[in-house]
Structure formats: structure tokens, C-alpha cells
UniProtKB/TrEMBL annotation:
Biased composition (Basic and acidic residues): 114-134, 172-188, 757-768
This protein's UniProt keywords: Cytoplasm, Cytoskeleton, Endocytosis, Endoplasmic reticulum, Hydrolase, Metal-binding, Phosphoprotein, Protease, Repeat, Thiol protease, Ubl conjugation, Ubl conjugation pathway, Zinc, Zinc-finger
Keyword DNA-binding: no
Species of the source: Dipodomys ordii (Ord's kangaroo rat)
Localization: Cytoplasm, Cytoskeleton, Microtubule organizing center, Centrosome; Cytoplasm, Perinuclear region; Endoplasmic reticulum
Designated name of the protein: Ubiquitin carboxyl-terminal hydrolase 20
Pfam families (UniProt xref): DUSP, UCH
GO cellular component: centrosome; endoplasmic reticulum; perinuclear region of cytoplasm
């Protein structure tokens, strides 16, 4: 990819993502689902870019102009030619892709999740209401003193045998399974919600609380936890992170990072939904405090990259336990220093104190760039025992998931004690993502200067095992990962350059991507790289054998009386996921079992035809469904769509008529106030921008209660003025309140005759 001017942060990230098989295969094989009416249609730009990169007749390099322009429209931070943070670019890109590709989660899945949660709940539970999505997105599981996060780009690749099998399935299944699918050139592309966290506070004793989370081997038990702060909502940093750039580079600032669990920038976006799971002592809460039911969404981004963590905080005074389920897209791991590393090895997983990584931090100056390369050369020529123990990725994970002691300045605010108390916090993985993104905290920002942790972190190319960090409630069966890609930052905290190492899915070879220069490298070069962002993919030999068996069944071409339609999106999961989950045909079916009228004209892009023997094998192996032998337009949905369109037309026409009459009044006796927040939701509904009607009218935000229960309009409130007739009409449809009116009490003018008589009497009195 051509460098557009300090855009190496973008090029390295895009190369890493373009080598992600689950995502790229989605953009190739499921083009019918890459549809959006949201600007700037970044998913279309990304699909075009990756298609060019992986086309058989691709040019020597491609220019990502369209995608660069789109990301700058989404986030002004990336405008201009200043150096930027590749990790923030990744988050912004995936978040926007999710927003454009998201679809409402299947109602059956959501109902199943709620039912399971309800069955596993205890009678003595104390439930709290959901927080807003914007608050949930900032949930943290980190220490407040762990501040620095650096730029990073992620690379990704896959093993040769697994990659060849996937391509074989894609080609053979395309010929033998689908009768409507045309042969295309092999292309790859990929795309991406922000974060849902739900909390339950329960009364439990110490043993029950520890048993709920503790699932690691005895040698990893921490005898003395470190000091950190409880899960909380960190404030966003106003300074944009700038950690690396393409050649040439200029110094920049670093962003403060409070969170172990990385999430997208705050915004009021809907919540993603993941696979259902059962929590015995930690329940996902139903939305009780909201008047309008919160819609859950999913996308290919959330399916691939979303995982969840179970965090438990216990008060050491009253033994009250607070449990939180947090969704993450990447894990931001600390790099322990020598002293902390010794504690991890000697005392079995005593967590490293944030901000105290020994001599790993070194101040960066104008000469540091040259010194860094000299240091790396010396290190490479010196035996490893001279520098002490090597930091491994497992050490970073152990430091991340170690127990935290909450004391001193980081005491826990206990809801039962109603005061600050000493506490202990534990954190375990509840659900593993298909692609695990790991971000190493190599950068630390102070007021006057910045640091970069240059310690080499050893990471495995294959067989990263996360079993020691799983909660007992974890539903994931596959816990080992293989490296796909790694993003490296060369330079200092003030300036540098990004490159990416990716494994090609076709031949299994590793390549170095340095803007428009691509070089084949040996895997030892990758292992010695100074990793900043790593992409790992679930590995499963059983999944590879399963795909080979399906290819064999499809090649048999057995005659069958019935043909079955299966979701192309799920078939892509089967070809690329280690755990594809049950068959989900709801991507092209409505709740009544037919085809939604708005999807029927491109239904061929959404389904693949399977012979009976292949369908029976997949159904017996994965379950799900429903089975589909005939495609038809749903008449019920058609009637509902027509009724909804009529309702919208009637409501908006009536409002326009009443509002026009209101505007014609010169001096209305009463003016009603309505919350603009609710009005904007109603307007989006009647204009067809939102399929869900708004809830009851909520004027609570624009009024305040005075003495005696009197309601008064809040100063500076966001409200609109409507007539009494308009208020009665909307209130009759949606209900709600409270009724807020501004009444004009104008005193009638005095009678001129009586005024003249009073003046005459007054004059006569004065004369007397």
C-alpha cells in the first residue's frame, strides 16, 4: 500500500486486517450483506480496497485513498498529515464497520439468553438497572496509575495447512454445493460495536466468590495481590494519541490509557450481543429502568472480535461481591519489568504494579532513535542470561489477570458498607473471541516527556493457551490460538515507523509489509520483532477435518429429492471459524419463516443451496436452523410494512397540519413544551430512519420540581413548543408526560370610560 504521507499507521493496520481469513472471506463471499445507507459507507471502501489487494491481477501496490478519506470524515483526529496511533485507527475503523454492518440480533437468541439468565438467578440477588451504552463503553478493569498506551498495528496470517483447507472448501463448496454461485477471483476483505457491560451486585461469602472465578492451576495462585483500583468509568482523554508515523516522523503526544479492556470512543450506540452463556453468580441484567426496550445488535465484527471478561470485586469487610461482565475487542496488557517479572515467577503470579516496571522505561531524546538500534544490535549479540529472564506474552497475560488488592488510594466503595473499604478484584475470561487482538502497553506519557518500553516480549507463533485465564462459566471449547499477524513500532515515543508481519493464508509464508515494499521473511524474524499489536486466531484440527469431510460429501454429488438453503454468512463462519456455532438462517429469514420483502430482490447473494446429505451432516453436527426448502416472500411482513408506512404517513401529515395551524396563531393562550430528545426519536421513526417507534413521551429532563410539587421548566432545557392540539394528539398515541405548559395570563385592559371617571373624581377632590 502506498504511503499517503505519514500513513504507515494505517497501512500496517490494513495489511494486518486484510490477512484475517474470517473477515476477508466475509467481504468476498457475503457481498450481499455489505450494504449500508450510512455515510461515509466505509465498508464499501474497505471491500473495494481489499478486493484490489487480493485480486489475481492486482497492481504492484494499491493506494488506499477512498478509505483514508472515509476514516477522516468519521474521526477528524486522522485529518492532515500528522503521525497517528495505529491502535486507535484500528478501533475507529472496526467500530465504524460495525456501525454500518450491524443488524438487530435475532429475537430468539435474545429470549434464550434472558431465559437462561433467569433460570440461573438466585432468590437473594439484588439487581441493579442497566447503565447507558455510553457509560458501558468506558468500563475499565485497570489501575488508574497505568496510564500509557502506544500506537500499534496488528498483523495477521494463518497456517498453510489450515489456509489451504479453507480455500479448498471455498472453491469446492462453491462448485459442488451452490447451484447459483458464480466462480469469482479470490478476494479478501474485512469489516467491524462498542461495548456492552452489565453489572450485578450480590451477597456472597468469600469461598463462594473465589470459587466462582478461580479456575487456574495451583501454581498461578497469587498469595499477595497488588494495589489497583476497582472497575470504574474512566474519563476520556482530550489529547489525541500520537505514537508513530510513516517516514518522515515528528514528535507527538501520547494518550493516557486507564483501561485494560479496550473499547471504542464513547457514543450512544446500541449494545452488541454475543453468544448466550449461563452465569451462576453473575447475571446479565435485563433492562428494567428504561421505558424503551434497548435493541441489541450484532455484526461480523462483533462475531469475530468480541469477547467478554468476568470481573469480581469483593469487600474484605462485609464480604459483599460485585460482579461485572464486560465486552472487549482487544486486551491491553502491561509489560512487567525485571522486579515484577521475578515476583511473577517466584511468587506464582503476583501482579506487577502499574507504573513501576523497573528499568524498562527509558527517557527518549533526539539521539534515542540511533541509540535504540545500537541497543538492539548489542542485545542480539549478547547471551540472554546477561539481561535476566525474558518477558513472555504469558507473563503479560498473568500480570493482567492477576488479583488486585484495593487499598490506600484505590479503596473500594462498598454499596453495603456505604464507605470506602479494602477489597480484592479478580478478572477471568468468560467468552473467547474467534480472533484475539492483544495490545502491549509500550508507551507511557508524562506531563513533560514520554517513555517507551523497549523490552522484548517473546510470543508464540502457535499454541497460545488461555486455559489458565478462563472462568468456570466459560462456554468456549477451543482455548488455543495461532498467530496471524503482528504490528511493530520502530523508533521512540515521539516518532517512529510502523510495519506489519503477516502470514499468507494461501502459502503459509510470512511477509513483511513496509508500506509499498513487501518482503518474504523467515519466521525467526517475526519471533524477534518488537511486537506492539498481535492478532491471534483460534486453532482447531477438528474444524479442519470437519471442513474436509463436508468437501468430500459435496463432491459425491448424490442425487437428492430435497435441496436446502443455508445462510451464506454462516457457511463463511463454517469455512473460517474454529467454532462456527449453530446454523443461523435468520440472516435471510424473518420471524415468520419467510423472506423479508426488502431482501427478496438480492436473496441469491444471501443463501447457498446444499444437497440433502451435506445439510443433514451439518445439521446433525451443529444444530440450529431452521431448515429451508422453499424461498417465498413473507405476506405477514408485507402487511406489517404497509401498515407501518400508513401509520407513519398519517402521523407526520397530522403533525404538519396541526403545527401549521399553531404557527398561524398570533397570540396562543397556552403553549405546550415537549422534550426534543423524545421528539427527535419520533421524527426518526415517522421518517423511516428508525424502525422502532419511540417510547412514551418523557419530559422529565426539561422540568424540575419546586416546593409543593410544582413543576417548573428547567432553565436551558432542550425542548420544543407545540400547540395544545398537537400535545393531545401525540399524548393519545404514545402517552407519557409530565404535561408542561406555558400559559400566558394577560390582564384585560382597563375600560377607558371608568378610567376617565376616576380621573374626574380625583381632579374634583383636589379642587375641594
Amino acid at each position: 500500500m502506498k504511503n499517503l504521507g505519514n500513513s504507515c499507521y494505517m497501512n500496517a493496520a490494513l495489511q494486518a486486517l486484510s490477512n484475517c481469513p474470517p473477515l476477508t472471506q466475509f467481504f468476498l463471499e457475503c457481498g450481499g450483506l455489505v450494504r449500508t445507507d450510512k455515510k461515509p459507507a466505509l465498508c464499501k471502501s474497505y471491500q473495494k480496497l481489499v478486493s484490489e489487494v487480493w485480486h489475481k491481477r492486482r497492481p504492484s501496490y494499491v493506494v488506499p485513498t477512498s478509505l483514508s478519506h472515509g476514516i477522516k470524515l468519521v474521526n477528524p483526529m486522522f485529518r492532515g498529515y500528522a503521525q497517528q496511533d495505529t491502535q486507535e485507527f484500528l478501533r475507529c475503523l472496526m467500530d465504524q464497520l460495525h456501525e454500518e454492518l450491524k443488524e438487530p440480533a435475532v429475537a430468539a437468541v435474545a429470549t434464550l439468553t434472558e431465559a437462561r439468565d433467569s433460570d440461573s438467578s438466585d432468590t437473594d440477588e439484588k439487581r441493579e438497572g442497566d447503565r447507558s451504552p455510553s457509560e458501558d463503553e468506558f468500563l475499565s478493569c485497570d489501575s488508574s496509575s497505568d496510564r500509557g498506551e502506544g500506537d500499534g498495528q496488528g498483523l495477521h496470517g494463518s497456517g498453510s495447512s489450515q489456509g489451504e483447507t479453507e480455500l479448498l472448501i471455498a472453491d469446492e463448496a462453491g462448485r459442488a454445493i451452490s447451484e447459483k454461485e458464480r466462480m469469482k477471483d479470490r478476494k479478501f476483505s474485512w469489516g467491524q460495536q462498542r461495548t456492552n457491560s452489565e453489572q450485578v451486585d450480590e451477597d456472597a461469602d468469600v469461598d463462594t466468590a473465589m470459587a466462582a472465578l478461580d479456575n487456574r492451576p495451583p501454581e498461578t495462585q497469587p498469595p499477595s495481590p497488588r494495589s489497583t483500583s476497582p472497575c470504574r468509568t474512566p474519563e476520556p482523554d482530550n489529547d489525541a494519541p500520537i505514537r508513530g508515523s510513516a517516514r518522515p516522523c515528528s514528535p507527538g503526544h501520547l494518550q493516557e490509557g486507564h483501561a485494560k479492556l479496550s473499547s471504542s470512543p464513547a457514543r450512544a450506540s446500541p449494545v452488541r450481543i454475543g453468544p448466550p452463556y449461563v452465569l451462576k453468580k453473575a447475571q446479565v441484567l435485563s433492562s428494567g429502568g428504561r421505558r424503551r426496550k434497548e435493541q441489541r445488535y450484532r455484526s461480523v465484527i462483533s462475531d469475530i472480535f468480541d469477547g467478554s471478561v468476568l470481573s469480581l470485586v469483593q469487600c474484605l469487610t462485609c464480604d459483599r461481591v460485585s460482579t461485572t461482565v464486560e465486552t472487549f475487542q482487544d486486551l491491553s496488557l502491561p509489560i512487567p519489568g525485571k522486579e515484577d517479572l521475578a515476583k511473577l515467577h517466584i511468587y506464582q503470579n503476583v501482579p506487577a504494579k502499574p507504573g513501576a516496571c523497573g528499568d524498562s522505561y527509558a527517557p527518549q531524546g533526539w539521539l534515542a532513535f540511533i541509540v535504540e538500534y545500537i541497543r538492539r544490535f548489542v542485545v542480539s549479540c549478547t547471551p540472554s542470561w546477561f539481561w535476566g529472564p525474558v518477558v513472555t506474552l504469558e507473563d503479560c497475560l498473568a500480570a493482567f489477570f492477576a488479583a488486585d488488592e484495593l487499598k490506600g488510594d484505590n479503596m473500594y466503595s462498598c454499596e453495603r458498607c456505604k464507605k470506602l473499604r479494602n477489597g480484592v478484584k479478580y478478572c477471568k475470561v468468560l467468552r473467547l473471541p474467534e480472533i484475539l487482538c492483544i495490545h502491549l502497553k509500550r508507551f507511557r506519557h508524562e506531563v513533560m516527556y514520554s517513555f517507551k518500553i523497549s523490552s522484548h516480549v517473546s510470543f508464540p507463533l502457535e499454541g497460545l493457551d488461555l486455559r489458565p485465564f478462563l472462568a468456570k462459566e466459560c462456554m468456549s471449547q477451543i482455548t488455543t490460538y495461532d498467530l496471524l499477524s503482528v504490528i511493530c513500532h520502530h523508533g521512540t515515543a515521539g516518532s517512529g515507523h510502523y510495519i506489519a508481519y503477516c502470514q499468507n493464508v494461501i502459502n503459509g509464508q510470512w511477509y513483511e509489509f513496509d508500506d509499498q515494499y513487501v518482503t518474504e521473511v523467515h519466521e525467526t524474524v517475526v519471533q524477534n520483532a518488537e511486537a506492539y499489536v498481535l492478532f491471534y486466531r483460534k486453532s482447531s484440527e477438528e474444524a479442519v477435518r470437519e471442513r474436509q469431510q463436508v468437501v468430500s460429501l459435496a463432491a459425491m454429488r448424490e442425487p437428492s429429492l430435497l435441496r436446502f438453503y443455508v445462510s451464506r454468512e454462516w457457511l463463511n463462519k463454517f469455512n473460517t471459524f474454529a467454532e462456527p456455532g449453530p446454523i443461523t438462517n435468520h440472516t435471510f429469514l424473518c420471524s415468520h419463516g419467510g423472506i423479508p420483502p426488502n431482501k427478496y430482490h438480492y436473496i441469491d447473494d444471501l443463501v447457498v443451496i446444499l444437497p440433502q446429505n451435506v445439510w443433514e451432516h451439518l445439521y446433525n453436527r451443529f444444530g440450529g436452523g431452521p431448515a429451508v426448502n422453499h424461498l417465498y416472500v413473507c405476506s405477514v411482513c408485507q402487511v406489517e410494512i404497509e401498515a407501518l408506512a400508513k401509520r407513519r404517513r398519517v402521523e407526520i401529515d397530522t403533525f404538519i397540519k396541526l403545527n401549521k395551524a399553531f404557527q398561524a396563531e398570533e397570540s396562543p393562550s397556552v403553549i405546550y413544551c415537549i422534550s426534543m430528545q423524545w421528539f427527535r426519536e419520533w421524527e426518526a421513526f415517522v421518517k423511516g430512519k428508525d424502525n422502532e417507534p419511540p417510547g412514551p413521551i418523557d419530559n422529565s429532563r426539561i422540568v424540575q420540581v419546586r416546593g409543593g410539587g410544582h413543576l417548573q421548566l428547567r432553565q436551558g432545557a432542550d425542548y420544543g413548543q407545540i400547540s395544545e392540539e398537537t400535545w393531545v394528539y401525540l399524548s393519545s398515541l404514545y402517552g407519557g408526560g409530565p404535561e408542561t405548559a406555558i400559559r400566558q395570563s394577560v390582564a384585560p385592559p382597563p375600560d377607558p370610560g371608568s378610567l376617565h371617571g376616576e380621573q374626574k373624581i380625583e381632579a374634583e377632590t383636589r379642587a375641594v
